[in-house]
């Protein structure tokens, strides 16, 4: 179950809301290096902070990223996702011009779709372990 450290409070509520998000690159092209992923994590942490969310876990590979986000009930997950994808795409393109060759049609790095799963029941530690293991071969 969820630990007491995961419980957050707002003005009128007490909550524990986590979402597992997965974003894939356009056409699943292998785009990211370790440096790109490291910078992307910081960008996504900043976006989450702007939404009063916490990026609890982040991991990725050349063609996708996993995020575990703790968010307040007032946040519309679709708006958070649009901001995470839009801001990361713009900033990475500005900071890493070599990525331009991966921006196919309409300068989009990310696929238009994404995965969002509510995290309930499984201990957060189990999901963190799953996300951490995603970049390991085998």
From TrEMBL:
Residues 14-134 form the Transposase IS200-like domain. Gene3D superfamilies: Transposase IS200-like (3.30.70.1290). GO terms for molecular function: DNA binding; transposase activity. GO terms for biological process: DNA transposition. Pfam families: Y1_Tnp. InterPro entries: Transposase_17, Transposase_17_sf. SUPFAM superfamilies: Transposase IS200-like (SSF143422). This is Putative transposase. It comes from Nonomuraea pusilla.
């Amino acid at each position: 179950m969820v630990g007491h450290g995961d419980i957050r409070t707002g003005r009128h509520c007490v909550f524990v809301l986590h979402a597992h998000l997965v974003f894939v690159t356009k056409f699943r092209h292998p785009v990211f290096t370790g440096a790109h992923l490291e910078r992307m994590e910081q960008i996504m942490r900043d976006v989450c902070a702007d939404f009063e969310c916490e990026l609890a876990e982040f991991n990725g590979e050349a063609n996708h990223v996993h995020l575990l986000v703790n968010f307040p009930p007032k946040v519309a997950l679709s708006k958070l996702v649009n901001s995470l994808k839009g801001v990361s795409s713009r900033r990475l393109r500005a900071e890493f011009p070599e990525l331009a060759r991966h921006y196919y049609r309409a300068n989009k790095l990310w696929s238009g779709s994404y995965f969002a799963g509510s995290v309930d029941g499984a201990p957060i530690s189990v999901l963190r372990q799953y996300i951490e293991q995603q970049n390991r071969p085998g």
